[in-house]
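quick q for whoever's on today - can somebody do inverse folding on this one?? i tried earlier but teh output was garbage lol. tokens:
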């Protein structure tokens, strides 16, 4: 589904240099034999969230549980698993502050950054999670 970066925060264009969102989503859809929706129409919005250092968006279809890497460079995606889309991806207005906060967290032995944030989570909640993970700054 999505790749996991190690100790930094990435968007799709950074995790997969030279691969556009259309190519990324299209490749997944072709692999899954899902029709690619026409790119001239957006069905709505989805919200970006941070999962282990990678910005993702979850498919809004109730019957689908997939999530895909997203980028603010081309903030649109469709689900290559079920074919839902296109959707406009909405990133949080305080994205830089979120990244600064999660980058304070210690990197566990397995090397995956515990950089998670979900829409609606406040900076106060995010700081409390950082403190709970052992960073006292």
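ok took a stab at it. sequence:
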């Amino acid at each position: 589904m999505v790749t996991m970066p190690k100790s930094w925060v990435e968007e799709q264009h950074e995790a997969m240099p030279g691969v556009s969102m259309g190519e990324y989503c299209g490749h997944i859809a072709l692999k899954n034999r899902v029709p690619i929706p026409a790119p001239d129409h957006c069905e709505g919005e989805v919200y970006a969230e941070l999962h282990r250092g990678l910005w993702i968006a979850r498919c809004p279809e109730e019957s689908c549980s997939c999530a895909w890497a997203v980028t603010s460079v081309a903030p649109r995606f469709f689900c290559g698993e079920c074919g839902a889309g296109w959707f406009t991806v909405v990133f949080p207005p305080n994205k830089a502050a979120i990244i600064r906060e999660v980058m304070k967290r210690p990197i566990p032995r397995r090397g995956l950054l515990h950089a998670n944030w979900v829409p609606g989570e406040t900076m106060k909640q995010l700081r409390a999670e950082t403190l709970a993970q052992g960073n006292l700054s």
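fwiw Strands lie at 45-47, 49-51, 54-58, 67-69, 76-78, 85-90. also The longest helix spans residues 21-32. so keep that in mind when u check it
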